[in-house]
């Protein structure tokens, strides 16, 4: 009830009403509904209007395309494909319904990848707010394939079925995409005949690395030529320290070569990707009593090391230590079960020996 004493203006009144069904409804508004006020005209207190109650607009999302696989900075290692950056798969989606699209909010978009044997090798979901969105191009998924060949990729929008849509049967898109090795590595293989290349991801600061391949040219300038200007120090311990270091505009030190089977401390002034070219050959690594810096050319379980040693140490990019060591006849280990190509290791020998890898 409103007090309309001396009122001569229009009033906006709000009424909350939830229709019970769709279709046409007659809405009537009556002033002085109980005829309590004497008026000069009692015939104009009513007004009615017919309105149509329509369904709430619903979207119709669909996936329109899955891009070819865009490989960045990849390199062949035997039968594997490693990536130094992101391997990008782009998904395009579209809303086929007419606007407006009310109250949609966040929607899940998923990508699943299957290999030639129908094994699930990648599964990831991203969320996008699609309220009033008509089309999105290039939703990026990052995936590292482990071998070349054909893969089946399936993209699904509204993968958890939370959104009510006009068509619930067009949310999937499946495509077969081919993965091939990076041309720079393949070209190198053709040139060297039986050569290959290995990709090393280096983090800003000190990295304990090794060369997993016997380089075609073992000079430091050749091995590290791909990151020229991005490194300043490289060193190795072999009974004594040897190094090459850049300081105040000049190079210092007595280290001129880098060889497979040895470990090296390498300082880079930014995160960078290094490709090492060469051949994967058996190695005989001479180890002396005491500390040695080493590397391997293929993965090696540390429990299979047939050496008289008592300490094996590795460092991750944050210089956290992983180890396997013997104390009074008992072996202790922390996150070091396998030696892998490209990483460097400290090993403490109890006598001179030769490691065959």
Protein architecture, described:
With 357 residues, this protein is mainly beta. The chain contains two helices and 28 strands. The chain has helices at 183-192, 220-223, and strands spanning 23-30, 46-53, 61-66, 74-77, 80-83, 88-95, 106-114, 120-129, 135-142, 149-157, 172-179, 196-202, 205-210, 214-215, 231-238, 240-247, 250-253, 263-268, 272-279, 284-287, 290-294, 300-301, 309-315, 321-327, 330-334, 338-339, 345-349, 353-356. A five-stranded antiparallel beta sheet has the order 13-18-15-16-17, with no helix packed on it. The protein starts with 22 loop residues before the first strand and ends with a strand. Residues 72-86 and 182-195 have low confidence and may be disordered.
Lateral arrangement of strands in the main beta sheet: 13-18-15-16-17
Radius of gyration: 35 Å
> In terms of quaternary structure, what is this?
single chain
Tell me the number of strands.
Answer: 28
Into which percentage range does the β-strand content fall? over 45%
Distance between the termini: 94 Å
SSE order: EEEEEEEEEEEHEEEHEEEEEEEEEEEEEE
Provide mean pLDDT, rounded: 81
The structural domain count equals 3
Largest sheet descriptor: 5 strands, antiparallel
Helix share, percent? under 10%
Instruction: Using the alpha-carbon principal axes, give the shape.
Output: elongated
Structural class: mainly beta
**Structure annotation, total helices:** 2
Low-confidence stretches: 72-86, 182-195
């Amino acid at each position: 009830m409103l007090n309309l004493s001396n009122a001569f203006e229009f009033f906006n009144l709000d009424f909350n009403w939830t229709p019970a069904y769709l279709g046409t409804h007659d809405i009537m508004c009556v002033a002085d509904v109980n005829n309590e006020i004497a008026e000069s005209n009692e015939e104009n207190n009513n007004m009615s209007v017919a309105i149509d109650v329509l369904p709430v607009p619903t979207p119709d999302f669909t996936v329109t395309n899955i891009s070819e696989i865009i490989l960045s900075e990849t390199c062949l290692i035997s039968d594997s494909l490693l990536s130094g950056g992101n391997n990008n798969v782009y998904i395009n989606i579209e809303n086929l319904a007419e606007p407006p699209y009310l109250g949609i909010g966040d929607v899940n978009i998923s990508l699943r990848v299957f290999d030639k044997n129908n094994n699930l090798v990648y599964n990831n979901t991203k969320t996008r707010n699609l309220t009033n969105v008509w089309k999105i191009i290039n939703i990026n998924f990052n995936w590292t394939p482990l071998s070349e060949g054909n893969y089946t990729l399936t993209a699904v929008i509204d993968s958890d079925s939370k959104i009510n849509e006009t068509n619930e049967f067009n949310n999937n898109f499946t495509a077969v995409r081919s993965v091939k090795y990076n041309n720079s590595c393949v070209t190198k293989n053709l040139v060297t005949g039986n050569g290959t290349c290995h990709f090393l991801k280096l983090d800003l600061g000190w990295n304990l690395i090794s060369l997993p391949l016997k380089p075609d040219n073992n000079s430091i300038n050749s091995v590290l030529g791909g990151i020229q200007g991005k490194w300043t120090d490289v060193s190795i311990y072999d009974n004594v320290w040897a190094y090459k270091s850049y300081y105040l505009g000049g190079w210092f030190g007595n280290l001129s070569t880098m060889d497979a089977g040895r470990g090296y401390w390498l300082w880079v002034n930014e995160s960078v990707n290094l490709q090492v070219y060469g051949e994967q050959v058996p190695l005989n690594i001479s180890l002396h009593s005491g500390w040695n810096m080493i590397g391997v050319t293929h993965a090696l379980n540390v429990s299979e090391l047939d050496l008289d040693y008592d300490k094996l140490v590795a460092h991750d990019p944050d210089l956290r230590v992983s180890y396997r060591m013997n104390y009074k006849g008992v072996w202790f280990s922390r996150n070091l079960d396998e030696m892998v190509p490209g990483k460097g290791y400290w090993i403490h020998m109890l006598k001179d020996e030769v490691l065959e890898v």
